[in-house]
Amino acid sequence: MKKILVLGGTGAMGVYLTPELLDMGYAVDVVSLDNIDSDNPNLRYITANALDNGVLAELLKNEYDGIIDFLIYDDPENSFAPRRDMLLENTSHYIFLSSYRVYAGADKITTEESPRLLDVSEDKQFLDSYKTEYSLYKAVGENLLRQAEKSNYTIVRPAITYSKRRFQLTILEAQILVERMRSGKTVVLPEQAMAVQGTMSWAGDVAKMLARLVLNKDAFGEVYTVSTAEHRSWGEIAEYYRKIGNLKYITVDKEEFLQIMSGGNGVWNGLRWQLEYDRLFDRVMDNSKILDITGMKQSELMPLYEGLRLELSRLPQKVCWQWRDNGVNAAMDRFLSERK
Question: Staple partner for 155: which of 189, 223, 273, 309, CB 3.0–4.6 Å?
Answer without folding.
Answer: 223
